[in-house]
Please model this.
Amino acid sequence: MPHRIFRIDKYTTYLVLGIIIAAAIAFWDLMWVLILSLSVAVVVMPLHRRLSRKIGEEVSAVVVSFLLFLILLGAVISVVSILQANSDYLAEIFATLLDWFRMQMSNQAAWELPISSDRVVEWIHSQIGRFEVYITDIVQQIPMLIVQFCVFFLTLYYALLRGDQVLHEVLSHLPHKVASALTRMSEVTVNTLYAIYVVHVATSVITFIIAVPFFYFLGYGHVIFYSLTAAIFQLIPIIGPSLLMVLIAVYAFALGDIRGVFLIALIGYPVVCALPDLYFRPMMMGARASIHPVIMWIGFFGGLAVMGIVGFVLGPLFLALIVSGYHILMEDIRAREAEEGGSLPGENRG
Model:
């Protein structure tokens, strides 16, 4: 196959690359939205391919994008509705904790707490002030959030519509070995993004299913509220539902429910928190991503620390591509060594 990419005028190539770089700089504030949208498009692409055989590519791209929009909207509405319905109960929990905390402060002299109650109250007021500032910032950013929302779904639609075509055109103009390596890396990209998105959602669902019977037997009522909160926390990297379990354990202790404290310590944390994180998530990730789960976790933590929320996707993806590139390079070196080793006997006979 002729390598047509090398026949392109170099000045034209420089011009196109310059335009791409300039566009990336101009849209830098929206770059994380574009990256997230493209990564989601990679995950839902198989569904788009199946539907496009029956209803056409353009209609399929619209249907898949709209279906994802409905899923996200339904999830947000469900979460907000359940939290709103249990807002009084949530306020009751914090009121109980605050009363218990104040009671402990009144007995400060008995157990010599090194922090005065005035400092604690001052800290609480400062945190409330920060939260109010945070909410104000979110309200002020609503117009920009709407723009980002529109860009996300428009990018998703176009990536579904033209993604396969662009990939095929690029690969068809590359040398065979380069195209083969990029094909393998694209497979790694799909599997890694699947592990990031689908596995995390699946782990959250598993957490919800496991949490329902536990919170039922815990006996505090509001089972769906507790279980949904645990599932939401499971989507948060590093923290997970462990923070929720600590809060409920303190609440149980404040109520004087020693049985509840032991249930949370012996069943709640090991089953609801640790089991999905330490067993189900690594098992599903390792099976699909084909790399060690530890590397995935390094990517999650490192990506979040360096790149923020988009690092949750790019961190493990970059590490997966590095591992894939290493394997491709080693296979190429072994193949060359085998060819050189096989040619030596023939040369000696000649």
